[in-house]
Write a structure and sequence with these properties.
Blueprint: H1 3-7, H2 13-16, H3 19-24, H4 30-34, H5 41-49, H6 60-63, H7 74-79, E1 108-112, E2 115-119, H8 134-137, H9 146-157, E3 164-168, H10 177-188, E4 195-199, H11 202-205, H12 212-220, E5 224-228, H13 238-249, E6 254-259, H14 268-280, E7 283-289, H15 304-314, E8 325-330, E9 335-339, E10 344-348, E11 351-356, E12 359-365, H16 377-380
This protein binds pyridoxal-5'-phosphate and iron/sulfur cluster (SF4).
Pyridoxal-5'-phosphate binds near residues 115, 117 and 336.
Length: about 375
């Protein structure tokens, strides 16, 4: 018998595999969660303290991955609130990334010159306790209805500089295929939009959502990249693998963004194991995010040095393909910047001294000539 059948006795397999059943039966209370895990007093206190702070919701599928006995289970820690979540710490913000000041219309964040982020829903199959966009996924704004999305599409049509559109939310995969097709085809019809991305945690939180019909839809608006959000190897189930491989087999590339979470995945071993598994499914680690300064997430954030130390333990020691960019999204709207271990020991006029990944001192001399203009650019890019 599969673990889920022991945890959810009496549920028919056809229901379990139905993503709508999963969403309708999300666990939304201490009482519902206590049927699956032995809730600690702290978790019960967290659920009570955050009742008016941020939504609680966990698909039965994601709940079935929880360790029923260990409160530090990475799936539990991502889905069950702790009392710290009701506390807004120093420097934490309602809008940590300064998105609202870069929202020319309600359903669109346009912060970078050539990229824009479209908000298509405020709901998710699972509400992550570290969610950075909780002011939206908390459900305190109006819904993103057809009118709001039409307005965003109109804005995009008038902005020829936008060549990359990220369809996000909330989780866009809570939408049915016809609604999603309307959004994606609407964006695809804008001639200057070169690439689309679909930012979704669906493969992690409700992998049954990803079926052949969805994969065909995503392929039909190519080039579209799915960007998903696995944080721990415990999430790497057969169902999640099938979802990711179905997308890749349909020619839809899948990238992963991990949020670095204190005591959830804050070790080189956890990140390396996760990324090795994802790569074996042809899912490429893209970003490792330092936790944003969202209200109530202080207990889940790591010191900035932790991410750098993890990268240092990966670089050289494992496949470069398994090493993501460590991103810090600057509070207030400065955008993402990246951090990496510093391998430069010193510079001199003749070159640069480095340390290698195993230590030692290595000198890289400067070339004889410093000019770097590309004369053929004028031929290949006539008129500038
Ligand atoms: C992260 C982000 C993007 C995309 O950034 P990339 O570095 O291109 O992945 C675009 N818009 C917003 C608002 C973002 O937060
Ligand atoms: S799936 Fe994404 S948007 Fe939804 S709660 Fe989790 S982090 Fe937030």
């Amino acid at each position: 018998m599969a673990t889920w059948q022991q945890r959810f006795p009496g549920v028919a397999e056809a229901d379990w595999r139905d993503w709508r059943w999963q969403q309708r039966h999300a666990l939304r209370s201490a009482e519902a969660l206590s049927r699956v895990v032995e809730l600690t007093a702290e978790e019960r206190a967290g659920i009570a303290a955050t009742a008016d702070v941020f939504r609680l919701g966990v698909t039965p599928y994601y709940a079935s991955l929880m360790d029923p006995h260990h409160p530090f289970c990475p799936v539990r820690m991502q889905a069950i609130p702790l009392p710290g979540e009701a506390v807004s710490g120093p420097g934490e913000l309602r809008d940590p990334l300064g998105e609202d000041r870069n929202r020319p219309v309600r359903a669109l964040v346009h912060k970078y010159p050539d990229r824009a982020l479209l908000l298509v829903t405020d709901t998710c199959p699972v509400y992550c306790r570290h969610c950075t966009r909780r002011r939206i996924t908390g459900g305190t704004e109006d819904a993103f209805d057809r009118g709001a999305i039409e307005e965003a599409l109109d804005y995009l049509r008038r902005r020829p500089e936008v060549r990359d559109v990220i369809v996000s939310g909330g989780d866009p995969l809570v939408l049915a295929d016809d609604r999603l097709a309307w959004v994606l085809e609407g964006v695809r019809a804008i001639p200057h939009v070169q690439i689309l991305r679909l930012a979704t945690r669906g493969p992690v939180t409700c992998p049954m959502r990803v079926d052949a019909a969805l994969a065909r839809l995503l392929r039909s608006v190519k080039p579209l990249f799915v960007v998903t959000h696995f944080n721990h190897a415990k999430e790497c189930t057969g169902e999640a693998q099938a979802a990711c491989e179905l997308l890749v087999d349909h020619g839809v590339p899948v990238e992963n963004q991990t949020v670095l979470l204190r005591r959830v995945n804050s070790s080189a071993r956890a990140i390396a194991d996760l990324n090795h598994r994802l790569l074996s499914w042809r899912v490429r680690p893209y970003y490792l995010h330092q936790g944003d300064l969202a209200q109530g997430t202080g207990h889940l954030r790591t010191p900035l040095s932790a991410g750098v130390a993890i990268l240092e333990q990966l670089r050289g020691h494992t496949s470069g393909l398994a090493i993501p960019h460590l991103a810090v999204d600057l509070p207030g709207g400065g955008g993402k910047v990246t951090l990496q271990p510093d391998y430069v020991l010193s510079r001199d006029p003749g070159g640069t001294w480095f340390r290698g990944f195993r230590g030692g001192r290595y000198h890289v001399p400067e070339p004889p000539e410093a000019g770097i203009d590309c004369p053929y650019d004028e031929v290949f890019y006539p008129g500038g």
